[in-house]
Design a protein that fits this description.
TIM Barrel, isomerase, 9-stranded mixed β-sheet, 14 helices, 2 domains, magnesium ion binding, Enolase-like_C_sf, Enolase-like, domain 1, globular, 12 strands, binds [(2S)-5-oxo-2,5-dihydrofuran-2-yl]acetic acid, binds magnesium ion
Length: 367
């Protein structure tokens, strides 16, 4: 089966509640819908969320590189010749979201062709994941109210709290208020998006020691090499590398150098193919993983849960699968629902999604 066409459609959907964190803020989902067409009539879809503050990509760069570089290279390529497709894609450096969307759209096609879900093709470990919800910067009152609403509405009891502000006390107060409000049954962990220095982060971890946090993510830049190593060595919970380890090689270096002791896997930046490489490396090195969220919409979240549920190691912890709840609308004909704090995989061929063409027409930016 051969690739006959590739569409890269920019669209914009506003958030009802913007997400603010140490490296940026997101008010509108300005993503790119990627569709790959084949000579057998099957069409694969995936979403590319540009994150300039993390990877340097923009909506225009994603559409540009797909239309000008990747589409001409991939037209006529065999859908199942994944290694050959990747060799073509990785002639170009960077552009992780654009490459990943193409990779995942091809897996969607492969699943449809075999009559199997992508989760089954990747490993079929389970059919759902527990959900972790991400809480952005705000006052203790607003963050705790948001957490209670999310818990009461969706049954979610795992929360990732964005930290990394100055003065550090702003975030310490939020974490403490959350523990007091949610009680001991809630799981809490923190993500600093490189906002603090290593010594500020060390101070924060000492202050929060009694709260029973389960993970600490990117509290300071990995480029602060010695400070970061010292922080990671002294951290009593797994220290997660997210944006500092975005390729299989960076993951290996990061773990061997003592920059991190756990890895965030994001399908938005490593697709399914490279996410498996990252996962298998981590398993070989005896390192825990967490399924992260690139502030994904529903299509991106379908991809994260499809991958996460496919393997035991990626479905052990709750996955970050709920940022789409803060969007005012989405593109799927059948919206995702989180019930009892879990999100189920779609047991249908491929990714099992259909795009609502009316909504796409309303939100697309290229006409
Ligand atoms: C996260 O885990 O950091 C914010 C920035 C980014 O690259 O991803 C999000 C969530
Ligand atoms: Mg992170």
């Amino acid at each position: 089966m051969k690739i006959t066409g590739i569409e890269a459609i920019p669209y914009a959907i506003p958030y009802t509640k913007p997400l603010r964190f140490a490296s940026g803020e997101v008010h509108t989902a300005e993503h790119v819908l990627v569709r790959v067409h084949t000579d057998e009539g099957l069409v694969g879809v995936a979403d590319a969320p540009p994150r300039p503050f993390t990877y340097g990509e923009t909506q225009a760069s994603v559409t540009g590189v797909i239309e000008k570089v990747f589409a001409p290279q991939l037209l006529g390529a065999e859908v199942f010749a994944r290694e050959r497709v990747h060799a073509l894609l990785y002639r170009t450096v960077g552009n992780p979201a654009a490459k990943s969307a193409l990779d995942m759209a091809l897996w969607d096609i492969a699943g449809q062709a075999c009559g199997r879900s992508v989760t089954q093709l990747l490993g079929g470990s389970t059919d759902r994941m527990r959900v972790s919800h991400m809480l952005g910067f705000d006052t203790p009152q607003c963050v705790t109210a948001e957490a209670e609403r999310i818990r009461d509405t969706h049954g979610i009891t795992v929360f990732k709290v964005k930290v990394g502000r100055r003065p550090v006390r702003l975030d310490l107060d939020v974490c403490r208020a959350l523990r007091e409000t949610l009680g001991d049954d809630a799981e809490l962990y923190v993500d600093g998006n490189r906002g603090w220095t290593a010594s500020e982060a060390a101070f924060a971890l000492r202050e929060l020691d009694d709260l029973g946090l389960t993970l600490a993510e990117e509290l300071c830049p990995a480029d602060d090499v010695l400070g970061r190593r010292r922080l990671v060595r002294d951290c009593r919970v797994p220290f997660v590398a997210d944006e500092s380890a975005t390729t299989p090689a960076e993951v290996t270096r990061s773990l061997l150098d003592g920059d991190a002791t756990a890895i965030s896997i994001k399908t938005a930046r490593t697709g399914f193919t490279r996410s498996q490489r990252v996962l298998f490396q981590c398993e070989g090195l005896g390192t825990e993983v967490v399924m992260g969220n690139q502030i994904d919409g529903q299509l991106g979240t379908v991809c994260t849960v499809a991958f996460g549920a496919a393997h035991a190691a990626t479905s052990r912890r709750a996955g970050e699968l709920s940022n789409f709840l803060d969007m005012s609308d989405d593109l799927l004909t059948e919206p995702l629902t989180i019930t009892g704090g879990t999100l189920a995989v779609r047991d249908r061929p491929g990714l099992g999604v259909a795009i609502d063409e009316d909504k796409l027409a309303r939100y697309r930016q290229d006409h």
